TrEMBL record:
The keyword Transmembrane helix applies. This is CTP synthetase. The keyword Transmembrane applies. It comes from Rhodoblastus acidophilus (Rhodopseudomonas acidophila). It comes from the Bacteria. Keywords: Membrane, Transmembrane, Transmembrane helix. The chain crosses the membrane at residues 38-57.
Amino acid sequence: MKIVAALIWIILGATLAGVGLAIVVATPQLAAQSMKFIPWAALAGFVIAIPFSILLASRIKGRLPKA
């Protein structure tokens, strides 16, 4: 399950980091200080993705037949 969770985390973390980046760049108040907020938004995206990837991996592994 750890391998599946890691693969999901890579994809989901990059997606959430990109969403955070888009929010920072699209909001004028945040875009003025984008050099400060972009790394934090990317880090937050990857950290938030951890519990979701574990949850998704457990659901995927639960539905797959055992070999």
